[in-house]
Each structure stands twice: as structure tokens, then as C-alpha cells.
Amino acid sequence: MSEETLTETLPPIRHWPAFDLTGTDFDPVLADLMREGPVTRVQLASGEGWAWLVTRYDDVRMVTNDSRFSRAAVMGRQVTRLAPHYIPDRGAVGVLDPPDHTRLRRSVAAAFTAKGVERIRPQARGMLDELVDELLQDGPPADLTATVLTPFPIAVICELMGVPAGDRPDMHTWTQLILSSAHGKEASEKAKREMSAYFSDLVGLREGSTAEDVTSLLGAAVGRGEVTLEEAVGLAVLLQIGGEAVTNNSGQLFYLLLTRPDLVARLRSDPGIRPRAIDELLRFIPHRNAVGLARIALEDVEIRGVRIRAGDAVYVSYLAANRDPGVFTDPETIDFSRSPNPHVAFGFGPHYCPGGMLARLESELLVDALLDRLPGLRLAVPPGQVPFKKGALIRGPEALPVTW
Ligand code: HEM
Question: Which of 39, 95, 137, 389 is the most buried (most CB within 10 A)?
Fold first, then answer.
């Protein structure tokens, strides 16, 4: 595009309020922004000023995979954002750029590949079976979130991290305190310090280890001088906390399935379709509210005729990209036969989610266990009475009352 055709009239700044959305409803403001796009400007509940937002699939992939947009440059800036307190720690994986980002992610990459997560499938299945045994023993009704969808991802991430079973309750308590704003910033900071001290000991103990769990991989990388202990601990904390994202995501997944008997019938009659169906559900589920961490343009960049200036903050919406009609035919429809399904539910570019394979494995095991072992599984209350989390960054049901 020539200089003359660049749009120099800035689009209006749209206020994007924090809604308490329920079910799997798509954010109505995001839907408007997608219509108004392709490149819009937004102001979120916290932080200062405005930021660009891109919503089209190709643009989202470009921004997230282009070194002209930096995460490190977000540090020290009060970019407009959803989270009230969240200002990431310096050196955290989310706010590093390559080559430091690449070096840090490489240290644990092996544990998160398809092969790496397959290693723990038998243990994961065993832990889930125990939880479902208890559920069956106690009988209906039950809160699926409290009984299965919360303890299972914790057990699995602890297994992958190499955290002994006895320390799982501490990990869960710290994670809840770190992620929730309800207990205040102090409590959250204290929990983060305690979890960091725990991982500092554990990683320190595993220096030179040849085991395949994450803290051993980190210990070995520290031992070889590839990452510092501080970097290793910061990454361990984020991976441990990230592990619980599956609770919310699978909460939405089961809410969706239990309100769509046609989808459950299909999964039961054709189990072979389950892995592909889970990817389609991941595409469809609105995992988070609004947008996560911004990127900063390091130089002027033109996107679809709009000039983004050096220093401007830019957000991408993976949720919007997953509903781009140019890539996904009939994007509002859940279609288990969709193929290919190049969704970006786990992000794109260097910061793509390291937990993607793990989340898929857990979702698959959950669908197998709950649909096959509880043939009469259904909601115990009308869908409108399922309580959803309020004021949350990641969306999901507070409780999922079920019976069978
Ligand atoms: C269904 C569940 C999950 C979803 C939908 C999800 C989604 C995402 C997305 C969209 C990103 C951001 C990409 C970006 O910054 O551009 C991300 C980053 C991240 N996720 Fe996940 N995630 C899930 C589960 C997990 C799990 C199980 C873990 C832990 C193993 C995890 C750990 C992380 C970490 C550490 C990052 C930051 C990566 C980086 O900046 O390099 N997530 N995730």
C-alpha cells in the first residue's frame, strides 16, 4: 500500500468495560469491535490511555509473530488493561523477547511436547479415576468444579513439575491466592514469595538431575549455566499457576456439553471423534475476558492501511481470531468435523501457550472419564442458575452442579 492510502484519521477510542459474562456467551463489545475493525482502538478498565486492537486471524498471527512488536517494552508502562493490579514481574516469560525468551522456554520445552505429556498419561488417568471413584461413591448431586475439575489439573501439573503429592494442597492454596484479587494484593504477593521459595529449594536440589519432570529440567539447565536460578523459579511459578487454567476451560467445556445434549450424543456414539471435537470446543470457548498482555510497536508498522506508530500498545484477540469467518466457515457453529482447524486458542508466535498439549490431554481424559463412567450426567440446576466467576480474567463456572 502506498503512503497516500494509509488511514491517518484515527478510529474512535472504544471503552471496553469489564462484564461478568455467563455461560459461553461471546463478549458483545468484542463482537462490535470485530465488525468495526479490522483495526480499532480500545480503553480497558485499568491502566492508562488507549491501545490498538486487532481481531482478524491473519493480523493476530502477524502481530504475535513479528519482532517489531515487543513484550519486554511493556515493562514499566501503565498500558490500558483489564487486570486491576497485574503488573508482570521483570524477567517473567510473558514479558521477555527473543533471544532471552527462547533460551528460557527451551529449558523446559521437552516436558510440554506431545511426547513429553504422553509420559504422564497413565498417572494422569489413574489420578482422574480415583477422583471419579470418589464422586460415584459419594453419589449425586455434586459440584463437578470442586470434586474433579479443580483437583485434577492440580494433580497433573504437580506430576509434570515433579512436585511431590504431599505438597499439592500448598500449591493449590498458593495458586488461588496468587490468581484471586479477593484476598488483596498483600496476600497474593506473599503467596508468590512462598511458592517461589518452594521452587527455589526444589530446583536447587535437582541441579544436575537427568529426570524428565519440569523442575529437574530447570535444575539441569541451571547446572549447565543456561538459565539463572531466579529465571528458573519465575518460570516454574508461571507454569504451576498456568496449570490451573484447565479448571476454568474445562468448566466451560462441560457447561457447554451439558447444555447441548446433541454434542454429548455425538461424542458418545463416535468416541474416535473426541480429540478433534476437543479442538473445536477449544476454538469456540471464550477462555478469557477482554485481552491479556499488550505488545508495544518498536517502529512504525502498517496494518491494513492503518499506521501503528512506534511506542503504541497493541492487543490481539485470539477469541476474535477463532471466529474469523474468512478462516472458519460458519464460525458460530460448533462443528466436530471441522478440518483443518487451525485455531489460536493457545496463542501464536513465540509466546504461544506451553501448556497446549497438556490441556488437550487433560480435556481428553476428562471427556472420556465423565461421559463413559457417568452415562446419566446432567446439570442439577437450570443452565441460568450455574454461577459464573465474577471480576475474573479467565472465565469459567464458580461451581458446576451436576447429577447423574
Ligand atoms: C485450556 C487451557 C489453556 C488455554 C486456553 C491457554 C491459553 C493461553 C494463551 C492464549 C496464552 C497467551 C499467548 C500470548 O501471550 O500471546 C497462554 C500463555 C501461557 N500459558 Fe496457557 N493456556 C491453557 C493452559 C495452560 C497450562 C496447562 C499451562 C501450564 C503448563 C499454561 C501456561 C502458560 C504460560 C506459562 C504462558 C506464557 C507463555 C509465554 O509468554 O511464553 N497454560 N496460554
Answer: 39
